[in-house]
Amino acid sequence: MKKTILAALLVAFGGLVGSQALAHGAAAISEDGDKIEICVRQPTKWFAESCAKDKCGAGCKVITTFRSKCVALVEDEAGERFQVERYSQEEADELAVADCERKGDGACRLIVRACDKR
């Protein structure tokens, strides 16, 4: 029932504001860090966060949100995260990794990369 209402609101809201508003994204991660889910093209930050958490499952939490850009989220060995948003995915990836290597602790790994543009 909850998902049906959520879907109905999404359709109604999307119809009111047009496709330009479908530019919110979010990523959620499981408690153990083994699962990451991403949702894009959502009408609001709230819908993006809810979608990512629903896809990820119980116990997951949102680790990043983004809007109308590409995002890269990199994590170092200590678990510190570095996020960069740019209009190009390649640029976001490169800058996030460089930031992690410059400021982070140990090896850096890209954990989220996604674009959510109109």
Compact summary:
This protein is α+β, with helices and mostly antiparallel strands and 118 residues long.
Describe this protein's structure.
The chain is an alpha+beta fold. It folds into 2 domains: 67 residues, no CATH class; 51 residues. It has 3 helices and 6 strands. It has a 3-stranded antiparallel β-sheet. Strand 4 and strand 5 form a beta hairpin. The longest helix is centred in the N-terminal third of the chain and has 16 residues. The chain is flat, with a radius of gyration of 15 Å. The two termini are 30 Å apart. The N terminus is likely disordered.
The main sheet orders its strands as 2-1-3
* SSE order, one letter for each helix or strand: HEEHEEEHE
Terminus-to-terminus distance: 30 Å
What are the low-pLDDT stretches, counting only 5+ consecutive residues below 50? 1-19
What level of helicity do the residues show?
25-40%
Structural class of the secondary elements? alpha+beta
Strand content: 25-35%
Biggest β-sheet strands, sense, barrel? 3 strands, antiparallel
Quick check: average pLDDT? 85
List the total number of helices. Answer: 3
The number of distinct β-strands equals 6
Radius of gyration: 15 Å
What general outline do the C-alpha atoms trace?
A: flat
List keywords for this structure.
3-stranded antiparallel sheet, disordered N terminus, alpha+beta, 118 residues, 2 domains, flat, 3 helices
